[in-house]
Amino acid sequence: MSRAKTELFERDLAAMASFSKALSHPVRIQILKILAEKDVCMCGEIVDLVPLAQSTVSQHLKELKEAGLIKGEVDGPKTCYCLDKMALESAMKSFSRVFSSICQCRIKGESK
Questions:
Q1: Contacts of 56 (CB under 8 A, 6+ apart)
Q2: Would you say residue 2 lies in a domain?
Q3: What CATH code is carried by the domain that includes residue 48?
Q4: How many structural domains compose the chain?
Q5: How many CB atoms lie within 10 A of CB 91?
Q6: Which uninterrupted H or E stretch holds 81?
Q7: Residue 71 belongs to what H/E stretch?
Q8: How many angstroms separate the CA atoms of 59 and 52, rounded?
């Protein structure tokens, strides 16, 4: 049985890659900013605040949800979205650890 290529790397790096993929479109970052500013679960209002079609916004919300950066709860015919603050904190720590490590390696290499 074959393994996914991401299984060959540290869990932290695989999580960072997933977060990075989810953040690779400006509208997804905008959606995260909107949810952070409102600090409440939002349904259709997100579509009103983003200059894209409802179906396109839904696809971007799906990407963010699959990466674990937002939560979505079904409320009748609507789905209400909010930030997953624990996942965002985890992403921030992962990025910080990796970039700190990269910067330390660069600083050591420059001193030679």
A1: 27
A2: no
A3: 1.10.10.10
A4: 1
A5: 21
A6: strand 78-83
A7: strand 70-75
A8: 11
- d(C-alpha 80, C-alpha 46), whole Å: 10
> What's the rounded Cα separation, in Å, for the pair 100 and 111?
17
Query: What pLDDT is stored for residue 15 in this prediction?
Result: 81
SS3 content of the chain, % helix, strand, coil (to 5): 65, 10, 25
Specify whether the CB–CB gap between 28 and 64 falls below 8 A: yes
> What SS3 state is found at 12?
helix
User: Is residue 19 classed exposed, middle or buried when 0-12, 13-18 and 19+ CB atoms within 10 A define those classes?
Assistant: buried
Q: What is the dihedral of CA 97, 99, 100, 103, to 10 degrees?
A: 160
| pTM of structure | 0.79
Q: Which domain holds residue 71?
A: 8-110
Q: What is the pLDDT of residues 26-42, one digit of tens each?
A: 999 999 999 999 888 77
Amino acid at 40: V
| CA distance linking residue 102 with residue 100, whole number of Å | 5
